[in-house]
Specification:
By secondary structure, the chain is of the alpha+beta class. The protein folds into two domains: 157 residues, Ribosomal Protein S5, domain 2, CATH 3.30.230.10; 118 residues, Alpha-Beta Plaits (2-Layer Sandwich). The chain is built from eleven helices and eleven strands. A hairpin with a 4-residue loop joins strand 5 and strand 6. The longest helix is centred in the middle third of the chain and has 17 residues. It starts with a strand and ends with a strand. The mean pLDDT is 93.
Amino acid sequence: METFTLETPGKVNLFLKIMGRRPDSYHEIETLFFPMERITDSVSVVFTEQPGTRISCRTSGVPSDESNICWKAAELYLKTAGIETGMEIFLDKRIPVAAGMGGGSSDAAAVLLLLQKKFGALDGNAVYRIAGKIGADVPFFLNPVPSVGRGVGELLEEVPDIPRVLPLLIVAPEFPVSAPWSYRHLDYSVAAKDMRSLESLLDALHKEDFLRAASFLRNDLEYAVMEKFPLLELLKRELASGENRVMVSGSGPTLFVFYESFEARERVWEHVNARIGNYAVKLLKA
C-alpha cells in the first residue's frame, strides 16, 4: 500500500467584510486570509486494493461518512480525472473543529494536493475548480500564503512583503459554531457602521506596525457570535489589554489576540494561561 502525507495549516481572517448576499445564497466578501503555520492537521492518504473512499479520525465531531468534506474532495477529483481507486484518508486533527479556522477546508485541500501528487491527472486550474465546488475556503489552502480573498473567498490575490508570522495567541473554545449559522445571523446594520478598510490594514502590516494593524482588524460576523455565546465576551474581557486587540476568527468561535509585539505576547503568556485555565478552551501560540 502506498501512503502520501501532508501537514496542512489552519487560518485566521484578519479582515472579513461582508459585501452582500448573492442570488445563489452565498455572500460576497472581502477578506484577508492568514495561515497558521504552527497550527496544523496531518492528512494521510493510503491507497488500497479495496474500492471506495474511507475516512478515519479519532477526533470527536468529525464525520467518517460521505458528509466529510475530504470524502467529497476525493470523490470529485477521481470522477473528474476518470480514475478508479480505493483509499483510506487518515486525519490527525490539531486545528480546532468547526472553529472558524478552516480545518475542514484545509484537510480537503490537502486531499486534492495528495491525489494530484499521486496521479498528476489534472492541471492546476482543474484542481482549483474542484476546490471551489467543495467549499469557499478550500482554494486558499491549495497555496496557503497570506492572501486577499474576494467573491465568496475563491478569488485570491497573494499579499507579498508582509510578515509570515504575527504576534498572535489563539483561544479556541471547545464548542462548535457552524458557518451557515453565523452568516444567517449577520447584522448588516451593525456591519455597515464599521469604516475600517483592508487597505489600511495591509499598509500597517507592510510596515510591521502591529499596534496600528490591530486597530484595523475587522470581522462583520463577530457581533452575532459574541451575542449568542456569552463565554466569548467573557474571554474577550479577560484577554483584552492596552497592548492587544481580541477578535473572532471567521465564523467563530475561535478568538485570536493580536499583540503589538512578540515581546508583549511573551510577557503575558503565563499570565493569560493562568487566567483562562478554568475555561474549556485551548490556548495556542500562532
